[in-house]
Structures are given as C-alpha cells and as structure tokens.
Amino acid sequence: MGKSFIKNHPTLLIFLALLALFTLGVTIMSEAYGTAFISTSFVKTLGKTLCLCLVAIAMDVVWGYAGILSLGHFAFFGLGGYMVGMWLMYERTQEVVLRSLENQVIPPTETEISDAIATQIFGVVGSADFPLIWSFAHSLTLQLILVVAVPGLLALVFGWLAFRSRVTGVYLSILTQAMTLALALYLFQNDSGLRGNNGLSGLQNLPHVTAPQSEISMWFLWASAAALGLGYLFFTMMLTGKFGMVVKGIRDNEQRVRFLGYEVEHYKLFLFTVTAIVAAVAGALYYPQAGIINPAEIMPIASIYLAVWVAIGGRGRLYGAVIGAAFVSLLSTWFTGGQAPDIPLGFYTISWVDWWQVLLGISFVLVTLYAPKGIGGLFDLLKCKEVQK
Amino acid sequence: MSTLLEVSGVSVSFDGFKAINNLSFQIGKAEMRAVIGPNGAGKTTFMDIITGKTKPDEGRVIWGDRSISLLGMSEAKIAQQGVCRKFQKPTVFEDQSVCDNLMMALKRRRSVWDVLKYRPAADIARLEQLADEIGLLGEFNRQSGELSHGQKQWLEIGMLLAQDPKLLLVDEPAAGMTPSEREHTTNLLVEAAKTRAVVVVEHDMEFIRRLNCKVTVLHEGSVLAEGSLDHVTSNQEVIDVYLGR
Amino acid sequence: MKRLFFACLAVLAWATAGQAEGPLQDILQQHRALIEKPSRTSIGPAINDIASSGLPQAQSMLQAWEAKNLWQRDADGLFFIGKAAGAELTLTDVDTGEALAPVEKSAAEQLKPNAGVRKLISSALVQFQLSDPDETRRLQSLDSIARRPEADHLAPLQASIETEENGAIRARKERLVKLLSITFAETVGDRVAAIQGVSGDLNLEVRAALNPLLATTRKVTDQIPAGENVAKIMRLGKDLTEEQAYAVLVDAGFARPRVSPTALKDALAANITDGTVGGVPVANLTDLEARIRAYTALAEAGTVPPFVTDDEFREALRTHVIYDAYNEPNSDVTNAAKASLKAIDLNVSMNQAMDLGLDALSLASIYFLAAIGLAITFGVMGVINMAHGEFIMMGAYTGYVVQQFIPNHTLSLVVALPLAFIITFAAGVAMERLVIRKLYHRPLETLLATFGISIALQQLAKNIFGTQARPLTAPGWLDGAWVLNDVVSISFIRIAIFVLAVGFLCLFLFIMKKTRLGLETRAVTQNPRMASSMGINPDKVNMLTFGLGSGIAGIAGVAIGLFAKVTSELGNDYIVQSFMTVVVGGVGNIWGTLAGAAMIGTLQKGIEWLNPSNTLAAQTFMIIFIIIFIQFRPRGIVALKGRAAGD
C-alpha cells in the first residue's frame, strides 16, 4: 500500500481522520479522562454504536458488494459476544467464588471451586455441571480464538452447503434467516449450555480489574474505534483491485463471472466467512459494553434491522453502512429511550416510544422505493453539483 | 488434424421433452464451424452442455489432448480449460470500467488467493493494447454501462480475446449489427479460427456463407446433416425441415 | 321350668312388641346386643341381615348409622335416626320415617361405631347405591368405586348387574367388575382370567388396575427366601453400578457408609489442631489426596471411623443379593399382568402413532393455511412478502374486533371470515399498488420494503391493541374433541382447520383451472409480455393475485387465532415456517406447497415425539433438516424442470 493507494481512496483517509477526531473528542469529554461532559452510559452507547458500525460494514460487503442479502450476520455477531461472554462470566464468577470460599476452615480443592462456579452460573437453569462447550472458558486466549473460530466455522459450513447447491437471491435470504432462527431457538433451550433465555450477564465487570466503569467504558470505546478503523481499512484494501471487481461482477451477473472462469462459489464462501468473522469480532467488543447477551438478541429480526441500517445508509459503499448504522441506531436509542418529546395533537398524543417503529418501517419503505442509494446517495448529489459548477 | 472437442451420444431431456437426442459432434484445434437449425433444434442447450451449465442425462464430452471429460466439471473449471462463450445479448459488467472488464477477463490465475494478491501494474500495457484492438482505448476508464450497444459488443469480444480461449462458442454474433460491423465481426472470427476452434450458432445464412466453413445442421436435438453450406442446403431433409415449418 | 316359661314369655312379649314396631326395627332388635357394642369382627351378620332384608328404608338407616346418627332410646331400647339440636333431640322412626316429638338428649344414647365397622356399613351401602332408582346416583357410586376400588365392592357390584336396566350403565358395571376382579377376585384363576380378559384394552382404568400388580420393592438379602415373587435380580455393572449397589446395601443397613467428600471435609474441619490435621498443614488440604492422607492419620488415631476399604466394599457386594420383588406374591398373576400390559403397550403405541399422525396432519393443515397465500404471491408472482405474517395477524385481530360487536360466537365467526378476507385483500391490493409494483424485478428490495411494512404494521397493532394477548373465542360447538379412545383424540378446532385447508386447496384449484382470473394469472406467470399482447392486463392480474394471496392469509389468521394467542407478534411465529413450506415444497405449484406443509408438519411432530420435552429443539432440528434437504432438492419437492424453471 503506497501513497497512491490513499490518494485513490480519499474517503478512507477522511473516514479514518474523522474516526480519530471522534475518539479524541469523546476522550476529552469523558468522565474518566476529561471534562466529564458526557456520561459513562453515553460513552457506552457510543462504543456500542461503533461496534454496530463495524458489523454494518461487514453486512455491506456481503450484501452491497457481493449481493448476498444475508439475514444471519447478526447471529455471527451474537455468537462472538457469547464466546467472549463465556470467559468474562467464568472468570468473574471464579473471583466471586474464591472470595466466598476464602474464609472456610479447610481450603477448597480445585473440584470444589469448579463445582461452586458451575452452580453459581448454571443454577438458574437447574444444572450444576459445566457443559462440554465451557471446556475452554477458563482461558482468555482460547476463548478469543473461539470468537473467530466458531462463527467462522458456522459460516463456512453453512455457506458451503448453501452456495454449493446454488441457492441465490431471496432463497438464500430465507435460508440464512432460517439458520438464524434455528440458532436462536437452540440457544433459548436451557440445556443448550449457555443458560437458555437468561443468557450471559454481568459482562460489564472485567475480572481482575479494579478500575471504575467510567474508565473501562473508555477502553472499550478505544478498542471499538480501533477495530472499526482496521475493519474499514481491511475491507477497502480487499475490495479495491481485481477481487473487488470480481465480487461486484458476481453481484451483477453471476453466470457471466462463472463463464469467465471464476469459481463464484469460492468467492462467495470466502466473503461470507470473512464478514462473519468481522461481525463476530464486533460482537465480542459490543457485549462487554452492553453487559448482557441473550438469545432474543440474535433472533432474525436483528439481522433484518442490520440490513435496514445498511440500506438507509446506502449500500455498496462502506461509509454508507457506517452512516446508516450510526444514524439509525442512535436515533432509535433516542426515540425509544423516551427522550424525544411527545407530540400532542389534541385528540391524541403521539408518543415516540410507540410510534418510532412505525416511522422507521415507513421511512424504510420510502428509502427503498425512492432513494435506493440511501443517505450515502446524497454525497453523490453533492459531487455532481460540484462537477456542474 | 487432431480433435479438440468430442461430444458423443449426448442426450438430455426436460420433463420428458428431449432437447438433445443422441447428439455427436467433434471439432479440431483450429477450425471454424457453423451450427444452424430451426428454433427448438437444441442449439442453445448444446452450448449449455459444453459449458457445463446443463448436465446431460447420458453421453460423453471429451476435451483436449489429454482427453479429459468435461462432464462433472463446474462452469468455471471448464472456462479455465479454455472454453469461452459469447452470449447473444452483450453482457458486460456495466458498473465497472472498460479496463476493469478486460482485467477480469485477462487470462490469469482465477483462485481467490491469486486474485487477492493480484497487482495490475504489469498487465496495464497488455490491457491497453487489447482496448486498442477493439477500438476502445479512448474509453479505457469509462463505465462500460455508458457505452453504446455496438461498443459493448466490441468490449465483449475484447474480453473473449483477453481470455485467450482454445474454443470459442459464439451465439448469434451478427444479431442487431450494421453491415459494416458484421463484416468486421466476420473477419475477426475468421482470424480467430486460424489459431483456435470457433463454433458459431447463427440463423443468418448470408453470414454463414461468408464464414465459408463446415456447417452442422441440428434438428430435434440431433445432427441432421454436416458438410459445406452448399452440401447441406441441397440436402432434401434439410430443405424439408426448414421449409416445412 | 319356671325359668323357661318366663323366658318364653319374654320372647313372646318382645316378639309381639317388635311386631308392632316395624320390620326393620325387628331386625335391629334381633341383633340388639351386637349393634349396641359393635366390633369389626362380629357385626357382619347384623349388617348382612339389614342389607339383605330387601327393605327400602334400610338404606337411610344404614347411612344414618354410618354417619353416627343412629340413637337408641334408653326407655325401650328401640333404635331411631336422631338429629340433635342443642340439648334437644328429634328422633325419627327407622321404618316409617315419622319424626317423633323432640325429647331431651339424655333420653337416648348415640351409637358411635368405630372406623372398621363404618367401613363395613359403607360397603353394604354400595349395593343400595348401585341399584338406586336415580341413574346419576348409580353413576356416582360407580365413579367412586372406580376411584377407590375395594374388595368389598366386588360382590354387590356383581349382584347389581342382573337388575340393571340401563345398557350403558350395565356395560360400565360389567367393566368395573372385570377391573375389580383383577385385584380382588377370590381365586388366582379368576384373577388371571380377568387379567387376560383385558389384554390389549386401551382404557386408562385398565392400566391403572394392572400397573399396581407389577409394583416392585427393592430388597437386599444374602439368600432369596423361598416363595418370593422375584421380578428381577440386579446384576452388578449392568442394572446397577457398584456404587449404586453399595448405596443400597448401606441404606438397608448391610454395610458401613463410605466417607463422602463432604463428610471427609467436615471431619477434617472438626479435628484441626494447631493449624494441622492429622499432621497435614491446613493450607495443604487443597487437593483430595492430601485430605485422604490427613483423614487416614485421624482414623489411625481412632478419632474418626476408618475408610471403607476396597476389600470390605467388594466383600459386601459379593455376599449380598439385590433384587426387585413383586408386591403381589403370586407369580401367575404377575406373569399374566405382564403379558396383558405388553399387549396393551403394543396397542397403545399403535394408537399413539395414529394420534401422532393426526397431530401431524393438523399441524400440516395449519402450515398449509398459513403458506398458501404466500405460495400464491411468492410462487405465482415471484414476489416475496415479508408482511405476510402481518396479514395473518390482521385477520386474527379482525376476528377479535368482530367478537366485540357480535357476542354470538358462531355468528361472529361467520361475519369475521369474509370480513378478514375483505380487509386483508384491500391491504394486499394497496400494498401491491403502492410498493410492490414499483419493485418488480428487484426481489431483494421487495423483501426489504415489505419488511419495512411488516415492522410498521406490527407496531401499529401494538399501539392499537396493546401488547397483551387478545382472546378470539371459538364457538361452543368447536370446543371439545373427537375422542376415539383414551389414546387417540383430536380437537374439533383442528378438524375444522383441516376442513378449511382442504376447502382452500379446492378453491385455489378451482380459481386457477376454471376461472378467467386463473387463466390470466397462469398466462402472466408464464410469459407476461405475451399475455399483455393478448389483451390481458398484467397489472390488474398481479394486483388481484396479490390481493387473493393476502385475503387467504387473513382467513388463515382467523383460523389460527381460534387456537393461538392473538398478539401483534402472531405473524412472526408463522412467517419462517410458511417460507420453509413454500421453499421445501417447490415454488409455483400448489401441490408442492401441500407436500411441503405435509413434510414440515410430519417432521416437526416426529421430532417432538422423539424428544417430547423440548419443542424448541424440535424446531431447531427441523430447520437444520430443511437446510440439508435443500442441498439435495434445491428447487423443492415438486420442482419445475428445464427452461420453465428459469435461472
């Protein structure tokens, strides 16, 4: 990557600069490292939004560039969260258990500690044993590997099955939606080994860390910003050049690309898996900031919202996905958080908590109908005007 | 003359309708062949079978010196072997520039890793030369969607050349062309047939006469007659099939 | 001689006096001594005489006796049914039922038979109830016998059969006799015959009567006693692990308990001296080995009981036999019961398979109903409608709203079905005109836009009707179930839905094959340009087709609302299954949808049957199965082949 690369991609440079500026701004205004102008909970919201932007980029790559409308990427996002959540919960519970066992007359054995942790974690689903899938929960390294490996493997196997049988278009969307539903329903069971509908909780408490939440939230914001920047850079590099051309070619005319001698299925599978992994990484950063993860989070509806963000932001351009995710998710938080003022109409008061979803649904239809390029399309208009001048 | 492609005893049926019925066909390494036949004779299905889009119910398709079977290979693998197809309607990637279209078609390794590692610098000269050959050097960096119909046809032919195929399958190349464009196309195909095999599917007898090559007549999914144009047009069966309809 | 004379006189006097009192009083007086001081062993003849007297008043007298309401007048020793109110007592003649003038309570003595006697009285009463002229009373008594069968019931029950006139009750009595004979018949032969008589019977009461015969008790011994009806001797390592077997021995007191980890820990904690236990520092007790060492040291010192050694453990297991013995001593009876139960089990599983089949069929009809509208819009028009589930929801809410205005459930249903069709038809047409028409040939965008409509509609429903589930009550004649036997039954609602599904299949076929709309739709599906050049207006056809599909979703919504909860999320529960049905079945073919629904319904029920506790897992596995199925038939069960399938 030389100078010309950046010169050819001014948006990349602008994006990275804006991201750095944003991070710096939040740091200066934060409670922990600055003027305490914005609250810790808002810092968390911003950090989470950055993670959502990252998963939106992944979605944009797989949908906007390769034309695969996956309704499963939020499932990969959630799986990433689960994987990191297992370590957080295990380690944190171990801390608590060790402290409670400290004063026993006879010091506890390893088995006793492990049993106590298991009871603590799985008591809520009526079990006192560690399921097999928790075998690596004690090790951060292994669990971080799983963040990449589990969603990656799932995407690989599912993608291989789906692409191999040439399932495309809406069929593929329905199939990915079914996969997501199957995963969510599986996790809803108590004997799934991941605490059923209770999910994993208390993830905001980092084990072995005594720093206050205000500081921890900043660390995660930095990490999320770095991940977003790296993800943006990674996908920009990947999609410029011949690979990007082939991918766009697959979106526009799959059969033609095949007759040019490219194994379309391999390309799709590669993209599907890579984006799934990026989504999982985003999830692994998101859920420690959210504090709790449960199967309801990964129901198909979440993945569809992801598509909504990307569509509203403008697909086929990475910054569009970022704008869409940030704009819609922050707006959603604002409207559904009850902060938006109600509109009294005399005979009826429009309360945004109730009506935001309706507005979102309708505006989504309007965007699809009249502005298929989304908000990002506005930039094109600006560019056109400049040219005309 | 050694054989490049040998199709023997191939049949395929759709819901009981026999689109191809015990068809046999062969072509040499540097040969031009025209395939004609009335509508529904199975011309397109025949091409589909060679390119791997349709799997035949029975029969063999043997390719090249090493006599590899093309059956069971994916479309991409067959294309990598050097079978290249031009569709009736020009299909170029409209969202991408002329340069991009040619670069994608250029004969280079096609696997995901190779494509990710690919750096265009070394090939730019070759691409410009190709663009020059098809008269699109001036449009090198334009979106191909902005080109005229004729220019798109040329771009597609350029893409075929960039692939450097051993076998060229051309579906109705003359459709919708002006007489001068037709002549240009004829020349190009004749030129190509000097070094590689070319199969042209065409309705237009005049066009075929100008190609001046061996003709295969398909009817109801099998070969009705084969030989020079004059030979087949004097065949009573062929006349019945064409005029009887 | 003189004494004899007086005795005769006395008897005569008593007899004449008794004659005057009434027939029942006579019998009572005859057994006066027994009745005054009743005991379980001796009272039998008295009760028998009363019960077999054939007197209608005997029943109320016995009831009074059982309820401790029988009094004996001190003055003449006569028995009365008495009712005490404060210090006063109203006596009623046992024969005539005439109430006498109230007397002082002290003028008579209350008879208080003990529990054993009362039980005998109550079984004597059974025969009266069993031949009570009131049919409901007879049925009640039969029910109570069935609930708590006793040996004493058998004879009166048998006796009452002959005089029974009502055929149904008679059958029930005969059946009950059979059941009672299983446990209470006098000879083993009778019992075995009775057991064999019910072989293969599906009735739950039969199984309830047979199962206790096979109840076992786990016993430990060193030598199995003769005459024990052994069900099974436990084999170590197969039926029981050594640990379990040893635990049984410990429970039975044949072996010393082993030291459990908790007991070990407690023992150690109780014996800490100067920071060490048995010479091991406390801080080192973090693994089991160290703990055992410490405990062994303590045991050697005699502070705690020693560990059970392996030899002791094995010896205890070797010298004892653990076995299950039948509580029923007779092996002929248990063998017959086993054979009968086996036959019953076979019959039950066959019937369960049938029940499962019916369940699957009804689930398939639900999926078919939910999917048929989608099959039309998706299959015929190639338009994917994510708001399809919300049309189903709209139909269900229409049913609910109609019920608010029309309280008669049957009538409201009759109104709701067409109304739901009209409303969703209109919604579908509006959606087609405003949104979908602009997005033909952009299927992914259609999917997204209809999804936007779906979330808007869902929230709208939530705003209007709240998040609470609304009831859509089925009319009374749809309540209940068609019960074939104790295993197979199917609710009327499900039958109605099945009928509805079949009806829609016929309607669809009729519209497609016999009407102008169907002809035009097929033409537009196959070749829209050709169709329009033949004077068909494809816009109009598409609009009507879409409206039809949506309208059917509305009707399906009313049907689904009858058994499911009507919430704003109703559609969500069916949308994925509906898509799966269409995709698995094969797009563009109604038979495919039917096959898809049948397959998914059967599959889901089948998986639920294999893993009944977990319907979530069933759905998960079903979806995985479908994903794999699509590998082998990407175009569904009924696939269009060749060029018609397109690309």
Task: Write up this protein.
The complex is a heterotrimer of chains A (389), B (245) and C (647). By secondary structure, chain A is mainly alpha-helical. Chain A is 71% helix and 2% strand. Chain A has 15 helices and four strands. Chain A starts with a helix and ends with a helix. The mean pLDDT of chain A is 88. Chain B has 245 residues and is an alpha/beta fold. Helix content of chain B is 36%, strand content 26%. In chain B, the strands form two sheets. Chain B has a six-stranded mixed sheet, sandwiched between helices. Chain B has a four-stranded antiparallel sheet with strand order 2-1-4-5, covered by helices on one side. Chain B has helices at 43-51, 75-81, 98-105, 112-117, 124-133, 149-163, 179-192, 205-211, 229-233, 236-243, and strands at residues 3-14, 17-28, 32-36, 58-63, 68-69, 83-86, 167-171, 197-201, 214-219, 222-227. Chain C has helices spanning 2-21, 23-30, 32-36, 44-51, 58-66, 115-130, 135-147, 154-163, 167-184, 188-197, 204-210, 242-251, 261-270, 288-300, 310-319, 331-380, 388-405, 409-434, 443-465, 492-514, 516-526, 528-533, 538-563, 570-585, 590-610, 615-632; strands spanning 70-73, 79-85, 88-93, 103-104, 108-110, 216-221, 230-233, 276-277, 280-281, 321-326, 481-483, 489-491. In chain C, 63% of the residues lie in helices and 7% in strands. The longest helix of chain C is centred in the middle third of the chain and has 50 residues, at 331-380. The model of chain C is unreliable at 9-13, 15-19 and 641-647 (pLDDT under 50). Classes of the chains: A mainly alpha (389), B alpha/beta (245), C alpha+beta (647). Chains in contact: A-B, A-C, B-C. Chain B binds chain C through residues 14-15, 17, 19, and chain C through 640-644.
Helix content of chain C: 55-70%
Largest sheet of chain A: 2 strands, antiparallel
By secondary-structure content and strand pairing, the structural class of chain A works out as mainly alpha
Strand content of chain C: 5-15%
Counted up, domains of chain A total 1
Low-confidence stretches of chain C: 9-13, 15-19, 641-647
E-strand count of chain A: 4
* Sheet with most strands of chain C: 5 strands, antiparallel
Number of domains of chain C: 4
Class by alpha and beta content of chain C: alpha+beta
**How many distinct helices of chain C?**
26
Shape of chain C: extended
Radius of gyration of chain A: 23 Å
